[in-house]
Amino acid sequence: MRRSPQPSTADTFCEGRTMNPGTTRGTTGTTTRRTVLAGAAALGAAAALPFTLAAGTAHAADPVDDAASLRTRWHTLLTGGPGLDLTDPQIAAAVARIGKAATTSAKGLDPTRTDGLFPDLTSTTLSNHVTTSFKRLATVATAWAVPGTVQYGDTALRDLLVAGIDWMLANRYGPGHTRFDNDWDWEIGSALALNDATVLLYDALGAERLGRINEAVRSYTPDPNLWRADRQIATGANRVWISTVVAVNAVLRDSGADLVRVRDALSDVEGSGANSVLAFNDASAAAEGTGEGFYSDGSFLQHYKHPYNGGYGKELLNNLSRLLNLLAGTSWTVTDPDLDNVRLWVDEGFDPLLARGDVMASVCGREIARPSKQGHISAQTVIEAVVRLIPSFPGETADRFTSLVKQWIAEDTYRDFLAVTDLASLVAARNVIASSVPARGPLVAHKQHPRMDKAAHHRPSFALGISAYSSRIYNYESIQNENLHAWHLSDGMVLLYTNDLGHYSEDYWPTVDPTRLPGTTVLAGRPADAAGQRTTSTTDWAGGAALPGTTLGAYGMELRAFGSSLQGLKSWFCLDDVIACVGSGITADAGTAETVVENRKLRDPAAALLVNGQAAPADTGWSAQLDKVRWLHVAGTGGYIFPEPATLHGLREDRTATWREINLKYGTDTSVTRPYLTLWQDHGTAPQGAGYFWLQAPMASAERTKQWSSAPPVKLIADSTAVHAVRRCTDGLLAANFWTAGTAQELTSDGPASVLVRPEGKAVTVSLSDPTQLRSSVVLNLAQRSLSVVSADPGITVAPTGTGIRITAATSELHGATLNLTLKRS
Length: 826
Prior knowledge:
Elements: H1 33-46, H2 67-79, H3 89-105, H4 128-145, H5 155-171, H6 183-200, H7 202-205, H8 207-220, E1 226-227, E2 232-233, H9 236-253, H10 256-267, H11 282-288, E3 293-294, E4 300-302, E5 306-307, H12 309-327, H13 342-350, E6 354-355, E7 358-359, H14 377-389, H15 396-411, H16 423-434, E8 445-449, E9 454-459, E10 462-467, E11 493-497, H17 508-511, E12 521-523, E13 542-547, E14 552-560, E15 567-575, E16 578-587, E17 592-601, E18 609-611, E19 614-615, E20 623-634, E21 638-657, E22 672-685, E23 690-698, H18 702-710, E24 714-719, E25 723-728, E26 734-738, E27 742-744, E28 747-749, E29 753-760, E30 763-769, E31 777-782, E32 787-792, E33 796-800, E34 805-810, E35 819-825
Antiparallel strand pairs: 1-2, 3-4, 4-5, 6-7, 8-9, 9-10, 10-11, 12-17, 13-14, 14-15, 15-16, 16-23, 17-22, 18-19, 18-20, 20-21, 21-22, 21-23, 24-25, 25-26, 26-29, 27-28, 28-31, 29-30, 30-35, 31-34, 32-35, 33-34
Helix pairs in contact: 2-9, 2-12, 3-4, 4-5, 4-6, 6-8, 6-9, 8-9, 9-10, 9-12, 12-14, 14-15
């Protein structure tokens, strides 16, 4: 049960001094500190949690209900706190990074200017210039507050920073200024940075200036429950961002009442509960129509229907972890039982989407078009957040989070987390690494996120992400003049993560051919830049089924291309180390249709391409039609087997671009060049019912690929417009995607369904789902005799037929989740 706001909670609290035993200041007028603490204790006892939210050892001695202590907590998050060993090489390096960042941020800082505090941030139409100005001030203030930097304690720099804040309040930010451009910058971005700078410079600001700062922040962000100029209800990451703004400002203003509002805003106790950040969004999405937040399958949606674990989702986790740290052990501790859901956010919503330090780009929205977000930076935010969460989840969860963090840090050999993280996270992460809990080990799993039309496949040597969309999910996000070439991000894009950990870093997104993203089926040609465009599909079929405890999954989508007549059916059967790729019904009224087998940014520009065992030219600019291809092998990437010889096209090219071409807001005009190898299948002009079939073997050797070309490990059973199906030769596993009612050898479905049938000794496991998420039931006929039920998920019934058994599965309200049935042969 969610709690209502407590009228007995104090409006104000002391700033590092002993509270008089009389009444507190505030709207209640007669509320005493004793009443407040007694009420909080009773409240905590009434809302029992499945775990105890602990303040952590760092807070054990804090007098936790006074403003000075809470301000110190936030100061420690920003600076690492007192007592750091500056002779420690990693600590010293982190301090040096802070100083270097401040030196860069301070360039051009001049409070005597009239057009802008910084010469490159003078716009009065681009709101990010306001946020960036405050961020630079906060960066410099951090260095001023951290012992060991060249800026530490510099009185001239302190005065310059204070003058800089005065300039921003007088000329850009506050109740006397008209906002422009993006509300996020006014209500969140600028406010967060100004709060941080204020905490860092607190003792140098004085009461009058503090009052102006607080008035400015509150003029844009007075309430953790509201968002934007028209005062809509904030949801998802925006709600936690706004709560963070209000919480830190409440500490600066001595407002315990606002901390109550922050605590309760996370649970939406004043609303219907539909906007609770902590509750899963499964039930509330349909009722409210927003769809924003985490779902129980690990999906995270923001901006209504955009998959966003790697963008807004990571920021929600990051800021929530900071808020929990700030409020832990106080009268404002978050005690909502839904806080326990955060465990599943990490396990289901982040772990499967991390690939050795990279967050899968299909869930990062328009952030992939920002140069500042490449190079595993998004994963760094996730790791820092989970490190902060560990003290809040003691016991088994803390151990699991510890094992995850140790694995994530160790396996990212591209970007050393300890060499880039902030001071507080460095200290905490080193304590985690030093613990006796072992690292989890590489993730080996197949995970589907039906709520956002995405799938992730992890094997010991690679990870693979599949990006689809449907009537439920947008195809891409392009707003604020960002992500301008994102047309095909969900047209069946397949992103392969190998030992080249920097593949999707180092300028991949501006330089890759956006009209030929790997795995996609597209019409050749370049659409107009995509600013402001987004759409759902006109079809519902996107999703699949996964066999629990294995790396076996069937996935598919009915493609209806945005802006053209192109349509087709696409399947990926992920069978351990082999992915069977099937397409059929590829049709278009005009234009040349292509399916992209691969498009790799090459670490070695001369990486060998073998075509049926023969080396293709490695020269830049090589292009060719490749006839009767039975197998391909790309060095460092893996193999591709074509059981029916196919005609392909190959191209090696150096691609030159600027980040500004895909991002007018944050991109730069500096040209970058990267080498690529692209392979695709041409379906011809205005194709009618074209198709494809190949086996992808990521990280397989050339020898293994050649062997499999002679004896394919997976056979195609069906590739019609009714059903795609394959069978694995080693064990007879059957995987099928039914687009309509149809039959695939011994398996028949009465309509759309995704199904896996796996024989294992005398046992037979059946996994199934409704990828349309519209059917009330799925009915399968399995033509195998002498089968009896061992176990079945709720909603599954089995009845004998003349040729085998009929399986009826109730799928209403399951939203594409997989149901499982285990049978045995007598």
